[in-house]
Structure formats: structure tokens, C-alpha cells
Design goal:
Shape: elongated
Number of strands: 0
Largest sheet: none
Oligomer: single chain
């Protein structure tokens, strides 16, 4: 008798909710397919629906929703009714386990928890529903959702048998192929590519639908790519591109084929695959955008900077909403740098520097921007940009930044700040090239401020370090270890630094009338490859040093070289005049 009263009370409440639903239904006609699927045709499911109806408190409705926009009221009503319906469903499940609508209530509550991502409760109700219904009703979807709940809980091994039950019990259902896919996904999460491949091979053998078979081959190729078996992956991808040209996976197969070739180092074949997608205008496809960008990246990797810049520029203009736009802009700027178009690169780097990017990429962009400001002789801007760089265990970039900042201070005639930067690099830099350049700049700064004697040791240390590197192939010339690789280009760089140091010492000694020392350093430069203009001046300076030390014989030798070897150089006329003057002095002294 008590149960009958409870049931009657529940039915009356359900009737009230249904009536209330009719009055609210005019507020919102948008009911999704997912919501319709959960509704039953019987009066109880209509009254207890968690997705279609909405309920609010009758006594307080006018007060609560006064002066509130209609769409907010509608959402509040919907959410309130959903929760109230679930409460009623759960009440029915507890009180009437033998009731006519018990299994349907279980299924609706399970769906509610599943959509709310409360997978533990959802799985519990789905299992109860399966026990109640056997293989009837919605048990196919319930079993599938149990597997999904287990996957969400990272219980992949436990999920596989559940999906296998879907395959065994419901051979011709719409969930048959999705079950195959979820089994393969479980194996993927378990890093078992072998069984993942076997699962898709079984699916490809079972189905005759070309789209399903094409997708199976695509997923097998993806697993092969994970194992770096690129040529095996290409075989499956060719099956799709050649046998299933009308399938929706045709362009995806071409794109993945391009990636396989690119990963294998066969850039030309990769570019051919990408171009095939880009040039196919039979109908729009989602992969044209990705293929155009991938083609630009491949050309960039091939160091074909001209074609890469054209392709990337086209891609950016055609598809400005591409997810990898910032990376494409960066590569385009790098292409412009390689093509000696710094102004175009500068504009892109400036745009990227104001975006939120990964700190490593942001640091690289700021470094390029600071470097360009330095080359533009905008030294204050260069310092400002370099100071924005946030370094995390990047000693190499830190040293390069310090060097550029030091050079900027030097050209701004802020000698004290520049000296501090170079002195720090002398003792702390890991790159030998920076150490040697810093030694040279320390000497140069001291000469500029009139401290000639203090400058000499830095120049001499710079020269000694270069000699050690060139003669002994030893790059450890500072307090810090270095990884400088000795190549012909590296040796040429060190020789140029040594040459500048020798010139600086020669000129400094000459200025301080220490002509013998000046001649000694000038003569070491004579062994270098110099332009006609530079060598003429060098020979003239050596001759002038000997003239000041009254060594007229050697002085005449060097003046004669200038006059004889470089008559077209302006200094040759001065050398000829000095030669006559020496000859006159020589006769007078005799």
C-alpha cells in the first residue's frame, strides 16, 4: 500500500513537470539530437527527461528571474530541471527495482553521468543496465560507453575485452568499426604498435566500405611511422592514394606520404607529394592548407630559401588563420635573412617579438631583432631588445648577447660599460672566438681612452691565443672550456683578429714614437693577404718607421716597393717624395 502511494505521488509530480515543460517549451526550441536520443516515448520518460525539459521553483520564479535576460532564465531553467530529473530517476531506481521503467531510468542516469564526465558513476549504472537488459535495448551503446569510461580512467587493458564484446555481440551495428578503433587506440596507449596494426588489418579485412578500408590503411601507416618504418608506411599510403581516390582519406594519404619521405630525407619526393595536394583543385580539401605550409618547410629544410620564401609567403596570405602561423612567419624571416633582405626580416621579427611564444623561440626572435638593430647602428634599441631576452641555461646565447651589448656601448662611446662587458667575457665566455674578440676590444678601448701601456698586454694576449689555436689546434685559451671547432673558416676568422691586433699595436707604438716596436708588428702583417691599397700603406708605414730610426737603407727598400709595385695608389707619390728626401739626407750625412 505504501509503495502504491509513493508511485502515485511520483506520477503526479511527473505530470506536473510535464505540464510545466509545455509552458516553458516556447522559450527555447533548440533541442539537440543528443537530447532527443535520451527521450523515451512513454509518459514517464517524457516527465523525467534530463535533457529536454527545464524546471524552476514555482513559488520563487517571478522573484528570482525578475529583470534577468530571457536567455539566462532559459539556461537556468534547463539546468535546474536536468538535476531535478536525475534526482527523480535515482529515486525511482532505489524505490522500484522491479518497476516497469527501472532499466530505462538506469540508462538515462548513466548517460547523464557520462556526459558530465563522472565516469565512475556512469560505468556503475551502465553495468547495472546491462545486467537488467541482457543484450536487448541500448546494451550495445552501454557496453561501448563502459569501455570509454575505462579508457578515461587509463584502464586500457580492461577496456579492450569490453570493446571485443561489442564486436562479438553486435556484428552489423554502427558501433562495430568504432569498437575496432577504440581497441586500436588502447593498444596505442599501451605502446603496442604491433597489435594496433593487427587490429586495423582485421578491420580492413572485415569491411567492404572504401572509406573504412582507407581509414584502416591510414591508421596502419600512422603506426608504422611511429615505429619509424617509413617505407612500409608508404606502401599502405599508396594503397589509399591509388585504390581509394574518391575516399575522404585520399589527401591525407598524400600528406602522410610526404611526411614519410621527409623523415627519410627524400625531400624532393616529399615536395612532390605536397605539391600534388596543393595543385589538385578538383574539390576543396582540408589538407591543402597543411600541404602548402609543409611544402614551404620542406624547401626551407632543403635550404632553397628563395622558393621557400615564396611558398611560405603565399601560404600565410592564403591561410592566415593557420595554427602554426607564428612558426611559418619565423621561417619566412629566416629565409629573408639568408637572402640578404634584412628589412623584410626585421618587420616580421618585430611583429613576432610582441606575441606570446615559447621562451626559446621568443629568445631567438629577440636575439635576431637585437642583431639587426646592431647592424643598423641603432645601438640603444639593440641594447633594449637584448635586455628583454630571458635566458635559462643558455651560455652560448648569453655570451653572444653580452658581446653585442658591449659593442653597442663601445660605438655609443660608453667605454666604461663596454670595458666591463668585455672583461667579463674574457674570463667567463665559453666560446674561444668571443674570448679572442673580447681581448682585442679591451685593448682597443684602452687605446681610445689614452691608456696605451695598459692596452698592450691585452693585444699581446689576443695574438698569443690566436697563435696557440692555429699552430697547436688548441682552443682552450681562457679560464672556461670551449667547444670551438677548428675549420678553415674558423682559422680565417682568428687570423683576421690577429691582423687587427697587430695593426692596432703597430699604430699605437708608432703614435708613441716607438718606431722599432711599430716596425716589428707591421712586418708580421706583411705575411697576410691584403688588398693593394692596404699593402701599399703597410709598406709605407714600415719605411717610415725605419726612416725615423735613421735606418735609411731599409727605409729606401720599403719606399721603393711602394713606388714600384703600387704606382697607382695615392701613397706612392708620398713614398717617392720621401725616397728622394732620404737620398738627400743620406748624401748630406756623408
Amino acid at each position: 500500500m505504501i509503495k502504491s502511494v509513493r508511485l502515485l505521488t511520483l506520477l503526479v509530480l511527473c505530470f506536473f513537470i510535464t505540464c510545466r515543460e509545455v509552458s516553458l517549451h516556447a522559450d527555447d526550441e533548440s533541442v539537440t539530437h543528443e537530447h532527443h536520443q535520451e527521450l523515451s516515448n512513454d509518459s514517464l520518460d517524457q516527465s523525467l527527461s534530463a535533457k529536454k525539459t527545464r524546471l524552476v521553483s514555482i513559488t520563487s520564479e517571478e522573484f528570482i528571474f525578475k529583470d534577468i535576460p530571457d536567455y539566462i532564465v532559459a539556461n537556468a531553467k534547463r539546468k535546474f530541471l536536468q538535476e531535478r530529473a536525475i534526482v527523480l530517476y535515482e529515486y525511482y531506481i532505489r524505490e522500484f527495482p522491479d518497476g516497469e521503467f527501472y532499466s530505462k531510468a538506469l540508462y538515462n542516469v548513466a548517460n547523464h553521468y557520462f556526459l558530465k564526465k563522472n565516469y565512475t558513476e556512469a560505468m556503475s549504472h551502465y553495468k547495472d543496465y546491462i545486467k537488467a537488459e541482457g543484450i536487448e535495448g541500448h546494451t550495445q551503446q552501454a557496453r561501448f560507453n563502459v569501455g570509454m569510461c575505462l579508457m578515461e580512467a587509463n584502464q586500457f587493458e580492461e577496456a579492450i575485452p569490453i570493446f571485443n564484446q561489442v564486436l562479438d555481440y553486435y556484428t552489423l551495428s554502427d558501433l562495430h568499426f568504432p569498437a575496432y578503433k577504440q581497441i586500436a587506440e588502447c593498444y596505442s596507449k599501451l605502446n603496442d604498435d604491433k597489435r594496433r596494426i593487427m587490429t586495423y588489418e582485421n578491420a580492413a579485412g572485415f569491411f567492404t566500405d572504401p572509406n573504412i578500408r582507407a581509414e584502416c590503411y591510414i591508421r596502419i601507416a600512422d603506426a608504422m611511422m611511429n615505429k619509424k618504418q617509413y617505407y612500409d608506411a608508404v606502401w599502405y599510403l599508396k594503397q589509399v592514394s591509388e585504390r581509394f581516390k574518391q575516399s575522404k582519406f585520399y589527401f591525407e594519404s598524400l600528406f602522410l606520404m610526404g611526411e614519410c619521405y621527409e623523415f627519410s630525407g627524400e625531400l624532393k619526393q616529399a615536395q612532390a607529394s605536397y605539391q600534388q595536394i596543393v595543385q589538385d583543385h578538383s574539390y576543396d580539401n582540408d589538407f591543402q592548407e597543411k600541404a602548402l605550409y609543409a611544402l614551404g618547410y620542406s624547401l626551407y629544410k632543403e635550404e632553397n630559401y628563395k622558393d621557400a620564401s615564396i611558398t611560405l609567403y603565399t601560404a600565410i596570405k592564403k591561410y592566415p588563420s593557420y595554427s602554426g602561423l607564428n612558426d611559418a612567419l619565423f621561417k619566412l624571416a629566416e629565409c629573408y635573412m639568408q637572402l640578404s633582405l634584412p628589412d623584410l626580416a626585421y618587420d616580421i621579427y618585430t611583429e613576432l617579438s610582441n606575441k606570446r611564444l615559447h621562451f626559446k623561440r621568443k629568445n631567438t626572435i629577440l636575439f635576431r631583432l637585437g642583431e639587426l638593430n646592431y647592424k643598423r647602428k641603432d645601438y640603444s634599441s639593440a641594447i633594449e631588445v637584448f635586455q628583454r631576452i630571458k635566458l635559462i641555461n643558455d651560455k652560448t646565447m648569453d655570451d653572444q648577447i653580452t658581446f653585442y651589448v658591449g659593442m653597442s656601448h663601445y660605438y655609443m662611446e660608453e667605454h666604461r660599460s663596454a670595458f666591463e662587458k668585455f672583461l667579463h667575457l674574457k674570463h667567463q665566455a665559453a666560446d674561444t672566438q668571443i674570448v679572442v674578440e673580447s681581448l682585442y676590444m679591451l685593448g682597443r678601448i684602452l687605446i681610445d681612452v689614452g691608456k696605451f701601456e695598459s692596452a698592450v698586454p691585452y693585444f699581446e694576449e689576443c695574438i698569443a691565443n690566436v697563435n696557440s689555436i692555429i699552430e697547436n689546434k688548441n682552443t682552450e685559451v681562457s679560464d672556461q672550456p670551449t667547444e670551438t671547432v677548428i675549420t678553415p673558416e674558423t682559422i680565417a676568422f682568428f687570423r683576421s683578429i690577429k691582423q687587427k691586433a697587430l695593426y692596432a699595436l703597430g699604430n699605437a707604438f708608432f703614435k708613441h714614437e716607438m718606431y722599432s716596436n711599430a716596425a716589428q708588428y707591421y712586418q708580421q702583417i706583411d705575411n697576410y693577404e691584403l688588398s693593394s691599397h692596404d699593402r701599399a700603406w703597410l709598406l709605407y708605414n714600415i719605411g717610415k718607421c725605419y726612416e725615423h730610426t735613421r735606418d735609411y737603407d731599409n727605409s729606401k727598400v720599403y719606399y721603393n716597393k711602394v713606388v714600384t709595385l703600387y704606382p697607382e695608389i695615392d701613397i706612392a707619390q708620398q713614398a717617392a717624395w720621401d725616397l728622394k728626401n732620404i737620398q738627400w739626407k743620406d748624401r748630406f750625412s756623408k
